[in-house]
Write a structure and sequence with these properties.
With about 270 residues, the protein is of the alpha/beta class. It has 8 helices and 8 strands, in the order βαβαβαβαβαβααββα. The chain has a single domain, classed as NAD(P)-binding Rossmann-like Domain (Rossmann fold, 3-Layer(aba) Sandwich).
Length: about 270
């Protein structure tokens, strides 16, 4: 059970792709722990507006900022707006992701460039720009996926981009460490969000996502309840200044509350 509840009062957090799915849940959890949350989005105005309204109803300070996080000009404009409005940024969650789901021999250079620009180049550029607004103790969290280390159907471009963001994390952790900024990657297992609908083999992937982990099997046997459990692999530099530790795989189990919120809580641990 996750019981860590860091107090993030006074912290300014930016969550890219924060209007839906895992990003929305991370934004909600950051806000519930006291942070002022900036929701970044690109196209879905309605989802962004709905998420901001949900946060406000819960008494969370929040705003939304539209920006294409794969575009250097848009990134610089976003960071400038944050500096003008808030003066600093304490937490950055690079959650936004996109990609073309096709086998290798059907991908074009355009497909490749689009995927890499959103999933790897963008987080690198945004992290560097955002770090200039971060005080000692700043936190950058990059969201990866199982496809970074295992082969999934039609996942070539996205999987390679996620492997790239994990490498980006390791380099940023070392280079930003002397400034007191910790950089981590969190890679959740298969999470039941609408993103799974993009897989050609939707049923197969969703079956994987719905399988109980070892912790889930034990929880159900002991409590008789159906829990939310999921495997997570993380590449992290916990509170580090100069090092990146090895990957660590964990199997986390929670009581049956909002499925996606359980994931939001995990990611927020690394923001403290």
């Amino acid at each position: 059970m996750l019981t860590i509840k860091p107090n993030l009062s006074g912290k300014i957090a930016l969550v890219t792709g924060g209007s839906r799915g895992i990003g929305r849940s991370i934004a909600l959890e950051l806000g519930r722990r006291g942070a002022t949350v900036i929701i970044n989005y690109l196209k879905n105005h309605d989802a962004a507006k709905a998420t901001v309204e949900e946060l406000k109803i819960q008494g969370i300070k929040t705003t939304r900022m539209k920006a294409h996080v794969g575009d250097e000009t848009a990134i610089n404009s976003l960071v400038s707006k944050i500096e003008e409005q808030f003066g600093q940024l304490d937490i950055l969650v690079n959650n936004a992701a996109s990609g073309v789901m096709l086998p290798t021999d059907e991908l074009s250079a355009k497909h490749w460039d689009w995927t890499m620009s959103i999933n790897a180049r963008g987080p690198w550029m945004l992290s560097v720009a955002a770090s200039r607004l971060m005080p000692d103790g700043g936190r950058i969290i990059n969201i990866s996926s199982p496809g970074s280390t295992r082969v999934l159907p039609a996942y070539f471009a996205v999987g390679v981009s996620k492997a790239a963001i994990e490498a980006v994390t390791r380099y940023l952790a070392v280079e930003l460490g002397p400034k007191g900024i910790a950089v981590n990657t969190v890679s959740a297992g298969f999470v039941m969000t609408e993103a799974l609908d993009a897989f050609p083999d939707q049923l197969g992937v969703k079956n994987i996502a719905s399988r109980p982990t070892p912790a889930a099997i034990r929880y159900r046997a002991e409590s008789g309840e159906t829990p939310n459990c999921f495997g997570v692999r993380r590449s992290l530099a916990p509170k580090s200044r100069y090092y990146v530790t090895n990957d660590l795989s964990v199997d986390i189990c929670q009581a049956p509350i909002d499925t996606i919120m359980s994931h939001g809580q995990l990611f927020v641990i690394y923001a403290q």
